[in-house]
Design brief:
EC 3.2.1.51; 28% helix; Immunoglobulin-like; 459 residues; four-stranded antiparallel beta sheet; signal; hydrolase; TIM Barrel
Length: 459
């Protein structure tokens, strides 16, 4: 018989539930494999919603631009012309009413967009919590304003009626919290704010809502030691209720962005245009000028569907995800122009999803000769399919793709089109497609088109 210690060792080796214990340092935490679902998802929806949605002017940093150390003149003027003397930022909170907030309607819009995950602002830099946090007395959505749990209601609706993952955005810092300002005055040699506010909130969010993503922000003041980030992440990966599935980003202190964490965001609107060594995400906006809803927005401020699909294609081709932000109004309405953009992306994905979801970067990200052509690939039963995503419909019947090298068995199809696409080998190599004449009302989709290439030589 084996000694008892040996039996225990064998049992541990055979028990798949016994996982690696991650240590509270970046070398250990960065070694954790990224949960597969996130890489396969490719597309998510971001939501910036809070008290800043009441003035709905200039964006989510409204309070800072009004009362910060370097006020923005247009914001100061806006307040002087539209609000009485003595009006405070806290006076906006009762007007954050959310009377038309229907989380099931939101969930339906997000499902229709083709997104695979949603990230809701639970607390932005203003410090207002969109859930009834016991660490934010009278500055949360249950005690003032909507008088409801905005986070919990959306999490429940998404999980009940869709297959999307649910994520929580959370700001480490708060612009004007006295505890944070005192820590900053002490050059972050004290961390009373972290111990009494930031970390208790994060643990509360995880234990109450079990998010699939924790999207951290507000990392530019104080390093990860001040924020106690590594201890939190070690608990998250080792002992939390979402330890096996949760994904986090890279904004955990001044020393972490674009270096540490589950995946990299590097900076807002990050689009490197080439393949990266680590998984990354482009967090971007439908409104070119702001993350939060703006009442004075113009149509020219809205990204076109063509441009948004281009962002998605470029990100996926280079190994990234796109997290696309819309800002709901203070009353809980997602503006129709934002809804239209999301639904149109969903229409495109219903035809071309095979070229996006669960794909991986190919040997080439964009074509070496044709501008506006991006590649993705996917393994299948007979090898690997390559997807040439053409952002503009070819003007000529003969369309040369220089990067793919065909074999005699190569086949080409246009996603959403029933007939095979004829092709020939280019005179100097590459794959020359014969573009069919398709009536406008029979085109498989708008905005971008995908040619699936099977049995190439260079896969």
């Amino acid at each position: 018989m084996l000694p008892s210690l040996a039996l225990l060792t064998v049992a541990l080796l055979c028990d798949k539930s016994v996982g690696i214990r991650y240590e509270p340092n970046w070398q250990s935490l960065d070694s954790r494999p990224l949960p597969q679902w996130y890489d396969e998802a490719k597309f998510g929806i971001f939501l910036h919603w809070g008290v800043f949605s009441v003035p709905s002017y200039h964006g989510a940093w409204f309070w800072y631009y009004w009362k910060g150390p370097k006020p923005v003149p247009s914001v100061v003027q806006f307040m002087q012309e539209n609000y009485p003397p003595g009006f405070t930022y806290a006076d906006f909170a009762p007007q954050f009413t959310a009377e038309f907030y229907d989380p099931h309607q939101w969930a339906e819009i997000f499902q229709a967009s083709g997104a695979r995950y949603v990230v809701l602002t639970t607390k932005h830099h203003e410090g207002f919590c969109n859930w009834p946090s016991k660490y934010s007395w009278n500055w949360n959505s249950m005690d003032v304003g909507p008088n409801r749990d905005l986070v919990g209601d959306l999490a429940s609706a998404i999980r009940k009626s869709t297959d999307l993952k649910f994520g929580t955005y959370h700001s480490l810092l708060e612009f004007f919290n006295p505890l944070f300002l005192q820590d900053m005055a002490n050059n972050f040699t004290t961390n009373d704010f972290v111990a009494r506010k930031t970390m208790p909130e994060l643990y509360e969010l995880v234990q109450r809502y079990k998010p699939d993503i924790i999207w951290s922000d507000g990392d530019w003041e104080g390093n990860s030691t001040y924020w106690n980030s590594t201890n939190f992440l070690a608990w998250l990966y080792n002992d939390s209720p979402v330890k096996d599935t949760v994904v986090v980003n890279d904004r955990w202190g001044t020393d972490t962005m674009c270096k540490h964490g589950g995946y990299l965001t590097c900076h807002d609107h990050y689009n490197p245009g080439k393949l990266q060594k680590r998984k990354w995400e482009d967090c971007s906006t439908v409104d070119k000028g702001a993350w939060a809803y703006r009442r004075n927005i113009k149509l020219s401020d809205i990204e076109s569907t063509q441009d948004l699909i281009t962002q998605l294609v470029e990100a996926v081709s280079c190994g990234g995800n796109l997290l696309l932000n819309v800002g709901p109004r203070r009353d809980g309405i997602i503006a129709p122009i934002f809804e239209e953009r999301l639904r149109e992306i969903g229409q495109w994905l219903r035809v071309n999803s095979d070229a996006i979801y669960s794909t991986r970067p190919w040997l080439f990200q964009n074509d070496t000769q044709q501008p506006g052509v991006w590649y993705t690939s996917k393994k299948n039963t007979f090898g690997e399919s390559v997807y040439a995503i053409v952002l503009k419909w070819p003007r000529s019947q003969d369309f040369l793709l220089a990067s793919p090298q065909p074999s005699p068995q190569t086949t080409v199809t246009l996603l959403g089109y029933s007939q095979p696409i004829d092709w020939s080998k280019g005179k100097l190599g590459g794959l020359e497609l014969t573009i069919p004449v398709i009536p406008f009302d029979q085109m498989p989709c708008q905005w971008a088109w995908v040619f699936r290439l099977d049995k190439l030589n260079n896969v």
